[in-house]
Amino acid sequence: MSIRPWRDIARRQSRQIMVGKVPVGGDAPITVQTMTNTLTSDAAATIDQIRRCEDAGADLIRVSCPDEASTAAFREIARAATVPLIADIHFHYKRALEAADAGAACLRINPGNIGSSERVAEVVRAAKANGCAIRIGVNAGSLEKDLLEKYGEPCPEALVESALDHIKLLQDHDFHEYKVAVKASDVFLAVAAYMQLAEAVDCPLHLGITEAGGLIGGTVKSAIGIGNLLWAGVGDTIRVSLSAEPEEEVRVGYEILKSLGLRTRGVRIVSCPSCARQGFDVIRTVERLEQALGHIKTPMSVSVLGCVVNGPGEARETDIGITGGGNGKHMVYLSGVTDHHVQDADMIAHIVGLVEAKAAEIEAGQSVSMDVTHGKAA
User: Fold this and answer.
1) Do 246 and 37 meet the contact criterion of CB atoms below 8 Å apart?
2) With the CA atoms of 241, 242, 247 and 253 taken in that order, what torsion angle do they form, in degrees rounded to the nearest 10?
3) I need a labelling partner for 205 at 20 to 30 A (CA). Which of 140, 162, 248, 345 fits?
């Protein structure tokens, strides 16, 4: 029995597959994906963007392969990447064959536009020969014509039927290293389709709200849709689709997982929205701390509260805490306990130093994060 049962999430049991060296499904951590937006044919630019995504914590990175020039560059890109790459294939099945030979760990195909069953069979053969996984990507915006005619519009039943049809095709060719997505830009449609699919299959599920929008709007939609599913225990890998730089997708993905206690990475900041009671500029302080602490990968927590209304209570739950006081003199908490004061001018550098020291202690096994002792880490 959990001591905090209201925080428990009963994760759906799925088969586990391997995407390169990364396990997906089963009891493996939920992985965070993103997708490059450079021209894949420009290997240098694509590798540079992959580096930024790797630094942000991406477990898997998808790379579009729309033409022969892209798959020709893919081999160099795959050799340079430190995380497994997924080749994104639309319309031209031969690009999948080329990407598999060039080092793709997974082939993402959209059944609605890849072509005939014979072409899908060729992709399966290439995947088997090269040890690739396959992600079936069903999308409400590109459903097969017969399903649109049958159902009249994209609906959960249509997305699930499309997924099941193509799962059967892979199984008919004795291929089982696959995961499935049934994405839609409509949150209600996507969630309903995933919930139905989760009941029908045992394979890992890739979650996403497709074409979610810009950084703010897309983050909100994705948090509602992906978060709803993860809270219900559904989902094994996620991609937050934003009209923003891919490393932002990774950061948002981790924030969704952090908020549900499913996975932690880096510093979790607890901060107030600020008001007239604040003893320092909370908003600017948080902005500066987020930037200054971006290099910390150790899971830990920092509370930044402008006054003593909620400051002490929040600080008791975090590794490092600061609460605004009068005359530019603020209280610092270490492991939930009041410790010392700091002045305005020294505050940012001081907190960064404390966080770096605490992270080093945690990594050396000399300390444990409050997030672990208070049950917020998973």
Assistant:
1) yes
2) -50
3) 248
